[in-house]
Amino acid sequence: MKPTLLVVEDDPDHAFLVLRALDRLGVSGEQVTHVMDGQAALDVLEGGLDPDLILLDLRLPKIDGLEVLARLKADPDRNRIPVVMLTTSRAEADVARAYAHHVNSYLVKPPRLDALRALMAQVVQYWLETNEPPPGNGTEPP
Question: Where in the sequence is the domain holding 117, given as residue range(s)?
Answer without folding.
Answer: 5-129
